[in-house]
């Protein structure tokens, strides 16, 4: 491998992963379990690439919950100047305009753009832009080859350096491999879906559309392994016992304005809600101010009568998206919230993707005990234990889960 001075020394398994993708001419699939540090591997690869070859433009495609993680990893591990263009949350017309401007006015330094899967199909300039590197994070998001987002990503298959990152490349069947490799390396399995499905699947039912079984599995695995590096947490002996990940996000412009008012003046006025007059929020003491700022950042406010009013769903959507990604590889997660409003909003969102066990202050102890038993013993269903921090943080055993997510952090001295 190229000699390189890392800002932060990688773990042994990360060195192996980096060695593999360097040997593949800076291409490849990092099929690394969550928490094993695949993002850092790619950032180190970008560092080596820019020091050995002339690259100007890097594109990262990811779920809406992930940009903050990328931005943090880049800040910590990039070894020279670069420009971040975070398109997540931007309207497609704005992204189009910015990309066209960038083509006419090239950046003097490395430009790293981040965009979500939600809008790539609505940004035609994306496939025409002179990308040197494209990274498809949580690539199981393009497992359906007919989906519009997948087709948009496939148009980027001619880029010189391509990576897919996921701990769960297969969520339904090995058929999920086709679309991801159509982007990563079209030569490995070809670009014709019918050829792939007949080579590796046994089909029946109406018009032979029902997958009855798998065939030639050894061939599929051996071909896939040529382009990929796979590692599980249990194989990473030098990993710390616990991994903590912060997921930064940006407040909406409207919410940021309200937040700044409260932070500077201990008072804020909010217009545009279901009221004839603006709502005035007061924070007479510092502790009240801290609580109000936390509520605003979460996406809601309370009026003088204690009624909650929604300001933004951004933070709820990011948490929901993050939980969805985790549940694709794990069937258990514990989620903690601080406020009742965010608890209720997450409960509505999560019911669409899993069995939710809600624990709040008024939940009877007998009901809680039953929920904890279901969480620990039922292995067949995807389960989210959703709890208020004050209601389910102490004296319980939840060892069935390896992931815990704090939507909001309590500032209690406990």
Keywords for this entry:
single chain; 414 residues; alpha/beta; seven-stranded parallel β-sheet; four-stranded parallel β-sheet; 15 helices; 17 strands; 38% helix
In the predicted model, the low-confidence regions spanning at least 5 consecutive residues are none
Strand arrangement within the widest β-sheet reads 3-4-2-5-6-1-9
| Envelope shape | globular
How many β-strand runs?
A: 17
Residue fraction in strands: 15-25%
* CA(first)-CA(last) distance: 48 Å
Give Rg in angstroms. Answer: 23 Å
Largest sheet: 7 strands, parallel
How many helices does DSSP assign?
Answer: 15
The percent of residues in helical segments reads: 25-40%
What is the overall pLDDT average? Answer: 88
Classification by helices and strands: alpha/beta
Oligomeric state of the chains in view:
single chain
List the helices and strands and how they pair.
Blueprint: H1 12-23, E1 28-32, H2 38-52, E2 57-62, H3 67-77, E3 82-86, H4 92-104, E4 110-116, E5 133-137, H5 148-154, E6 161-165, H6 176-184, H7 186-189, H8 193-200, E7 201-204, E8 210-214, H9 217-226, E9 228-231, H10 253-265, E10 267-270, E11 279-282, H11 286-298, E12 300-302, E13 308-310, H12 314-327, E14 332-337, H13 340-350, E15 355-359, H14 365-377, E16 383-388, H15 389-392, E17 404-406
Parallel strand pairs: 1-6, 1-9, 2-4, 2-5, 3-4, 5-6, 14-16, 14-17, 15-16
Antiparallel strand pairs: 7-8, 10-11, 12-13
Helix pairs in contact: 1-2, 2-3, 10-11, 12-13
């Amino acid at each position: 491998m190229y000699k390189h001075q890392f800002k932060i020394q990688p773990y042994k398994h990360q060195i192996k992963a980096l060695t593999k993708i360097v040997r593949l001419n800076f291409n490849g699939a990092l099929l690394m379990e969550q928490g094993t540090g695949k993002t850092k591997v790619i950032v180190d690869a970008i560092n080596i690439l820019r020091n050995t070859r002339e690259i100007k433009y890097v594109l990262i495609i990811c779920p809406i919950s992930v940009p903050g993680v990328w931005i943090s990893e880049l800040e910590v591990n990039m070894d020279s100047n670069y420009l971040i263009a975070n398109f997540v949350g931007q309207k497609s017309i704005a992204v189009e305009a910015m990309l066209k401007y960038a083509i006419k006015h090239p950046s003097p330094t490395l430009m790293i753009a981040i965009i979500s899967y939600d809008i790539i199909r609505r940004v035609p300039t994306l496939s025409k832009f002179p990308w040197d590197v494209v990274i498809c994070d949580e690539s199981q998001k393009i497992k359906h080859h007919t989906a519009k987002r997948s087709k948009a990503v496939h148009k980027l298959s001619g880029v010189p350096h391509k990576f897919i990152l996921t701990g769960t490349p297969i969520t339904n069947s090995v058929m999920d491999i086709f679309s991801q490799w159509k982007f990563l390396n079209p030569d490995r399995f070809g670009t014709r879906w019918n050829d792939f499905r007949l080579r590796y699947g046994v089909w029946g039912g109406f018009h032979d559309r029902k997958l009855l079984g798998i065939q030639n599995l050894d061939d599929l695995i051996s071909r896939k392994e040529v382009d990929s590096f796979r590692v599980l947490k249990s194989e990473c002996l030098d990993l710390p016992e616990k991994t903590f990940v912060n997921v930064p996000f940006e407040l909406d412009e409207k919410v940021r304005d309200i937040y700044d008012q409260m932070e500077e003046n201990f008072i804020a006025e909010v217009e545009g809600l279901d009221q004839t007059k603006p709502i005035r929020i007061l924070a007479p003491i510092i502790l009240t101010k801290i609580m109000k700022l936390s509520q605003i950042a979460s996406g809601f406010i309370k009026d003088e009568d204690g009624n909650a009013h929604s300001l933004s769903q951004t933070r709820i959507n990011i948490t929901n998206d993050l939980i969805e990604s985790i549940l694709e590889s794990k069937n258990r997660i514990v989620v903690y919230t601080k406020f009742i409003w965010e608890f209720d909003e997450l409960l509505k969102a999560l019911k669409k993707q899993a069995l939710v066990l809600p624990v709040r202050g008024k939940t009877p102890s007998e009901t809680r005990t039953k929920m904890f038993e279901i969480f620990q013993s039922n292995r067949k269903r995807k389960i989210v234990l959703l709890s208020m921090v004050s209601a389910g943080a102490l004296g319980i055993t939840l060892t069935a889960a390896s992931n815990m997510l704090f939507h909001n952090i309590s500032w209690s001295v406990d």
